[in-house]
Amino acid sequence: MTTETATAPETHAFEADVSKLLRMMVHSVYSDRDVFLRELISNAADACEKLRYEGIATPSLLGDDPQPCIRVLLDADQNRLTIEDNGIGMTAAEMGETLGTIARSGTKAFMERLAAEAGKEGSQLIGQFGVGFYSAFMVASQVEVFSRRAGSDEAASWTSDGQGTYTIAPVDLADAPTRGTRVVLHLMEDAKSYAERYTVERIIKAQSGHVPVPIMLFEKPDADGVDIADGAALWLKPKSEISEEDYADFYRSVAGQYDKPAHTVHYRAEGRYEYSVLTFIPETKPFDLFDPDRKGHIKLYVRRVFITDEAPILPRYLRFVRGLVDSADLPLNMSREMIQDSPVLGAIQKGVTGRLLGDLQKLSDNDAEAYQRIWENFGPVLKEGLYEDFERREALLGLARFKSTTSGDGWRSLKDYVAQLKENQTAIYYATGSDLDRLSTSPQLEGFRARGIEVLLLPDQVDNFWTTMGVDYEGKPFKSVTQGGADLGLIPLVEGADKPTEPENAAVADFLAFAKTTLADAVSDVRASDRLTTSAVCLVAPESGMDRQLEKLLASAGQLPTAALPVLEINPRHALIQKLASSDDADGLKSDLAHLLLDQARIADGEQPTDARAFSDRLDRLMSRAVG
Fold first, then answer.
1. Do the domain assignments include residue 302?
2. Region C: start and end of each range (predicted)?
3. How far apart are the C-alpha atoms of 154 and 146, rounded to whole Å?
4. Close Cβ partners of 257 (under 8 Å, ≥ 6 residues apart)
């Protein structure tokens, strides 16, 4: 195969995002510049894995050098560090595409966080955002890349000082690897230690000791190489031979993060299909947790040959999990597209997902504190499964944890909730919103508190959707406290609670009827409330209507052309309501009062009055009457 390359050197400017990124990397202070070496070795290992895959269909690409290898060459005299691989290599065109641009979403978010966290944990973000090659400019005043694509009879170089431009030029084959890529770093004065064996060997063993490609270290240009990483597949080793530090090291390599795994799942499945699994739940939230694409991050291998990192091994609500699956049954000569439709992959998907959820359940039973940390990071994502995965909904409900009106700063499981249902309570009550503090003080909760009924407080957007799917737990349906009637009459008050008194006369009933007529264009009904104990009014959704919070969410997204009119509930026992009901209607006073009560309910619900000027005018008239 012959690939066309440039016939003369060509100088190009970096795209804007890369140029800005390089300035930030060079001029910022990082807590750990060692990150660059791990990133370059990771890129080299990926190149070897890609060649191993392409070599299945085209064995000639491997030539007489079939074994993948990464070579790290030190030259302290010339202040140079070289990382070379015999992987897939790049053409001149591919150099421009790969090394001159950042073809990934999230670049803007990366640079914003890098600017905010430089000097603290900024360097730890580099691997997370896929911009690892550029980290070389933290230690190098100039970077040269020589590469020859497997099967090509041409080679090219890429050179840059990181100041805004790069040059791509053809080179003689003698000046490039026989196959693969050589990255030469001309080290800065304050980075000379990266040409010393002790420093480089320590970093590689600590950060890249488990990449699936052997690594050789050459202390001098003419010295013999020393094996410092054997390229053994960690996931194929017995668990008894792997330390926690080994797992953490491999996790950082495969996940591109610098935290530790909060939970590790490592096992080998045998039976109809055989495959090895090594997955990690991160200790901290990945930056792309809520990326609209919601892609997973599980690598698929077939008999140690890397196939793809885009196979849908896990459902989207487990996209925070990092790791790999190595199958012994998938054919190596299938395309990535065909693999995704394979019944073998379907069985692997089901097995790995079930095992991971089962392990999380065991963790929640045996180490509640460790599980709580995982839930605090990834609970909102796991709850997407309640909406999307009917088959595993029961297992996910068992894993779910909630804040509630009785949990304080802790979390409650549904098992805990159901165990403490009140007499005659037939539903699991919840309130959705966007702010936990506002939720906990909602007037709609008052009647539930008076009866000691626990209400789940659900502040995540996904809560507005899964709760509408007819979900139940142990036969108890979920019911919103802001939808329909509260039906609390059969549930006794807690001991010591004041028993609500009935209105002293029919004036309140007349006022309710008047308010219903006056507000007919704004509400679907005005009725006496049994859920209010201290507040005068609140808004709820009709029994057959959409939950109030979901309605607001859809309306704000432009997905709800017309919203249903809410129900205004009035507390007939409230002293203010009884006084209003007995007042005269001079100058339209009662009409103003009815509208002001509706606006008061809107404000308590986190909304604004629909007509601010009319609200102000009514308030002016009321205050003038009060002081007149």
1. yes
2. 553-628
3. 11
4. 124, 127, 128, 251, 282, 284, 286, 322
Asked if residues 24 and 46 have their Cβ atoms less than 8 Å apart, the reply is no
Task: Single out the residue in 207, 232, 257 at which a domain terminates.
Answer: 232
Distances (CA, A) of 488 to 422, 449, 501: 11, 11, 15
Structure tokens at 388: 């999307």
Q: Do 198 and 226 share a domain, yes or no?
A: yes
Domain CATH number, residue 61: 3.30.565.10
Both 219 and 292 in a single domain?
Answer: no
Token pair of 574 as six digits: 């409230």
β-bridge mates for residue 456, sequence order: 404, 430
Q: What strand order describes the sheet that includes 180-187? A: 10-13, 165-171, 155-160, 140-148, 180-187, 80-85, 70-75, 215-218, 225-229
Amino acid 379: pLDDT: 96
Residues contacting 198, CB < 8 A, separation 6+: none
Q: Please give the Cα distance from 211 to 68 (Å, whole number).
A: 12
Burial of residue 180, with CB atoms counted within 10 A of its CB: 0-12 exposed, 13-18 middle, 19 or more buried: buried
The 10s digit of each residue's pLDDT in 589-615 is 889 999 999 999 999 888 889 899 999
**Could you tell me the sign of the dihedral formed by the alpha carbons of 337, 338, 339, 340, in that order?**
positive
Regarding whether 217 and 254 lie in a shared domain, the answer is no
Domains in the chain, number = 3
Residues spanned by the domain of 578: 507-627
Q: Are residues 210 and 249 in the same domain?
A: no
Rounded Cα distance, 197 and 176, in Å = 24
Hey, what are 382's tokens? 């796991």
First to last CA, the chain: 96
CA–CA separation, 182 and 616 (whole Å): 73
Is residue 363 predicted with pLDDT exceeding 90?
A: yes
Give the lowest-confidence range in 23-32, 244-253, 278-287, 468-477. 23-32
SS (HEC) of 167-222 = EEEEECHHHCCCCEEEEEEEECHHHHHHHCHHHHHHHHHHHCCCCCCCEEEECCCC
Q: Are residues 257 and 206 in the same domain?
A: no
The string over 279-289, giving b where at least 16 C-beta atoms fall within 10 Å of a residue's C-beta and e elsewhere, is: bbbbbeebebe
Q: Identify the DSSP state of 412.
A: B
**Residue 413 is assigned to a structural domain of this protein:** no
